[in-house]
Design a protein that fits this description.
mainly beta, Neuraminidase, five-stranded antiparallel sheet, 26 strands, 3% helix, Quinoprot_gluc/sorb_DH_b-prop
């Protein structure tokens, strides 16, 4: 399915930045487009360690294996269940649905109470408890009438369809909300701690304020408390100076990467170091100021508007909304080892979420029914893709 003719040359060539990441600190691409000294940080891999790592081939490939499910309304978050099945959130309908990845059958678990969808807000990221096998807890990030918050709910699949979600337990609240820039991605890391990407809700000053929860990556326990070892005392703030983070993923060395919407010039892929300042609003894209941690890759905002990311086959795979393409960023350590490579340009419209399906397979979620896309018959959908 080709939505529109693919241009022979991209309007703006993706620029790879493989140098200048500072360890000292530090609307065009929205969905449609007083700092403290850290108390501690964790070290990133050294140049010697990175040199010892093998980079994947400069060029990769993408094959769409099949369409897993169709006719989804404003899908946003995706969480694969350990025993099979995919949980998907509807941003605007505030529902969570289970998709059988073999047959495409959809079963609604229920509606999440308290969600107030508007603009870029609503029911967004999903994550499963690191102890899901025993506690069956599903975590969700959503916009309420007053803020963005994170809740957890018991999923009881023995109950009738529509009644399988327990009452939400709010574990974290007070994240600034706005019509735009609500962040929304949550994920449990290899350390079994919960990470959340937030936006500055259109108030750019929040990003540089380490006492604010807006424009940050947050790190907390499964109960919503600031995680031990965080860089700012008694704070969930893990990194700051972000505009709107909607992509979080770890490589096979447990290093965190995040995708970020720029404004009018540069979207970013960042390697995250705890306590570092990623520049917004003082810097968009690469900066010569050593106070700010530079991105490892950047794109013109028409080429990306990045939401979800996943790691597979030695590369970060980044879903583009306005860019309507899937980007491959091959890695060597915490640097891009070759130019980013675009796939599926214009073929499936806006791309919201990409999640590892194990090995060389990914789940890819489109986002054409979100009010900014051009939905076609069958939208929105979940695709299974094979990558290298």
């Amino acid at each position: 399915m080709q939505r529109r003719a693919v241009s022979a040359v991209l309007a703006a060539t993706a620029l790879v930045l493989t140098a200048g990441c500072s360890s000292d600190g530090g609307g065009g691409s929205s969905d449609g487009a007083d700092s403290a000294t850290p108390s501690s940080t964790t070290s990133r891999s050294s140049p010697t360690e990175q040199a010892a790592e093998e980079a994947p081939p400069a060029k990769g490939s993408v094959k769409v294996v099949r369409t897993v499910a169709e006719d989804l309304s404003t899908p946003w978050g995706l969480a694969p269940l350990p025993g099979g099945g995919l949980l998907v959130s509807s941003r605007d309908e505030a529902t969570i649905t289970r998709v059988d990845e073999e047959t495409g059958k959809k079963t609604e678990l229920g509606e999440v109470p308290g969600v107030s969808p508007a603009g870029e807000g609503g029911l967004m990221g999903l994550a499963l408890s690191p102890d899901y096998a025993s506690d069956h807890m599903v975590y969700a990030y959503f916009t309420s009438a007053s803020d963005n918050r994170i809740v957890r709910m018991l999923y009881d699949e023995q109950k009738p369809s529509g009644q399988q979600l327990g009452a939400p337990d709010t574990i974290f609240k007070g994240i600034p909300k706005g019509y735009i820039h609500n962040g929304g991605r949550i994920a449990f890391g290899p350390d079994k701690l919960l990470y959340a990407g937030t936006g500055e809700s259109g108030d750019t000053g929040l990003s540089q304020d380490t006492k604010s929860l807006g424009g940050k990556i947050l790190r907390m326990t499964p109960e919503g408390e600031p995680a031990p070892g965080n860089p700012f005392p008694d704070s969930p703030v893990y990194s700051y100076g972000h505009r709107n983070v909607q992509g979080l993923a770890w490589d096979d060395k447990q290093r965190l990467f995040a995708a970020e919407f720029g404004q009018d010039t540069w979207d970013e892929l960042n390697a995250i170091t705890p306590g570092d300042n990623y520049g917004w609003p003082e810097a968009e894209g690469r900066s010569s100021d050593s106070e700010y941690h530079n991105p490892i890759a950047q794109w013109g905002t028409d080429e990306a508007s990045p939401s979800g990311i996943a790691h597979a086959e030695g590369s970060v795979w980044m879903a583009g909304l306005k860019g309507q393409r899937l980007w491959r960023i091959p890695l060597k350590g915490t640097e891009a080892s070759a130019d980013p490579q675009a796939f599926l340009e214009g073929e499936y419209g806006r791309l919201r979420t990409v999640v590892s399906a194990g090995g060389d397979k990914l789940w890819l979620v489109t986002s054409n029914t979100d009010g900014r896309g051009d939905p076609e018959e069958g939208d929105d959908r979940i695709l299974e893709i094979q990558v290298s």
